[in-house]
Structure formats: C-alpha cells, structure tokens
Input
Amino acid sequence: MSNIQMQAKLEWEKQALAKFNSMIERIPLFHRTIAQQVVHKKAQMNARERGSLQVEESDIVRAFFSEVPLAFYSLMIRLLDEVGFDYKVDEPR
Output
C-alpha cells in the first residue's frame, strides 16, 4: 500500500476535527494557511506514530506545540483555551 493510500484512510475524530477547524479560523489570516498545513500534517504523523488510523485531539495539540513557533506561544494557548482543547496534558514542560 502506498503512502498516498495510507493517508487517504486516516480519519479524524469528528469533535477533534471541529476544534481544529475552529482553531484555524481564529489564527490571524496571514499565518492561517501555513499553520493549517503544518499542523494538519504533523497531527496525522502523530496518529500514525501511535499506530492509529484516526487523528485524536492529543495528536492535534501535540502538533500545535511542536509546529507553532515559540513567538506565538501565548496566542496559541489563548486559542487552545477558546476552542476547548485539553492541552495541559500535552503541554511541553
């Protein structure tokens, strides 16, 4: 099975996807597209690393923490709170 076929079979939990989309909508327009692309890709990678065919909320949160530059950390935390992500378990120490 090719990587493209594997990627097509990866699903997202409905509520996690809704939160992801809501989060992306709140990101300033100038950064929105790149944030969506890199976090989406990393969330899928996180799910695959867990051996899952489904992206879960923790995969998305970990993707935001690993892919969003430190300069935007406080904005990201505020948006994670607004959207209702449970990020404290996955927050880097």
User: Anything to note?
Assistant: Residues 1-6 have pLDDT under 50 and may be disordered. Helices lie at 3-9, 14-26, 29-49, 57-67, 73-83. The beta strands are 11-12, 54-55.
